[in-house]
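DM from R.C. (forwarded with permission)

"hey, sorry to bug you on a friday — could you get me a structure for this? deadline for the figure draft is monday and I only need the backbone to look sensible"
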Amino acid sequence: MEIEVKKSSDDEIVFIVRDAEVPFINAIRRYAMVNVPKIAIEDVNIIRNDSAMFNEVLAHRLGLTPLVSDEEAIAGLLPMDECCGEDERCAKCSVAFEFNEVGPKLVYSKDLKSSDSKIKPVYDAIPLVKLKEGEELNIIAYARIGYGKDHAKWMPTTVCAYKQYPEITFNDDVNIDYDCADACPRGILKSDRRSKKIKILDIEDCAMCKSCVRASKNNSNETPRRSYINVDHRENDFIFTIETDGSMPPKEVLLKACEELDKKADEFIEFCEQGGS
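My reply, with the result:
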C-alpha cells in the first residue's frame, strides 16, 4: 500500500491511497468519525438563565462548541468510566467551564472560563446567547472525553470521505467530440482544437458524474451511439479527505483512527486464537 499526501493544513488533509481495498478504507473512515477520543461539554448546571433561550437549547449549543482536544491537551485526562463513574466527576476525568454574565451583551464562546488553560473553545467568536438589559446567565458546565459513536459532539471530523480514483480515456476510433469538454461541470476538461485533443486539467477533481459521456453520446451518429470519452475508476486507488472542526489536527485524527483500528484487529485475532470464547 502506498500513501501520498496531496494537501495538508491545520483543519484539512487530502491524500491518495494506492493498492488498498474498499473494506479497509471504509474502516479507517468509520474509525476516524466515531472511535477517536475528543472532549465536549456533557453536563450543564444552569444556576440562572434569564435569557429568551431555553435551557435545553443552550446546553445543546454548549455541547456542540468545539473544544481543543489534541493529544497534548487531553494527555492525562481519563474517560469517566475509567475514573469515578458516569454519575460523578473529578479533575482527573473532567474539565469545568463557567459563565457569569450580565446583559446587555452577546455572549461568545470566548466567555467560557475553563479550569484547564489547555482545554478551551477552538474559536472565540461563536455566538451562544444574547442577553438583554439586566438579564443574567450563570452556568457551570463539565466537559469530558467521549466518542462520536455516542454523540455527534464528540465527532472530530466535519468531513470524512473517500472516492475511488477517477480514470478518463478516449476512443481513438470515434470522431473527436469537443462538446464533451464543455459539458464537464467542474471544468477539468479543455478543448485544444490546434492539437486536436481534449486535455485533462485535474483528474483528481473529477466527480465521475459522466456528464461528458452523455454529451458525447448525444452527438454521436453511430448506432448504437458511442461516446468519444470514457469515465471510470481505478479499482484499488482512493482519494481520501479528512476535515476537522479544529479541535485536533486532521493528521492526528487519521493516526489515532489507525491506532484504534489496529487495537481492534489485535483483539479480534486474540479472540479467534482462543477459540471464540
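R.C.: lifesaver. Residues 250-273 form the longest helix (24 residues).
me: no worries. The first strand starts at residue 2 and ends at 8.
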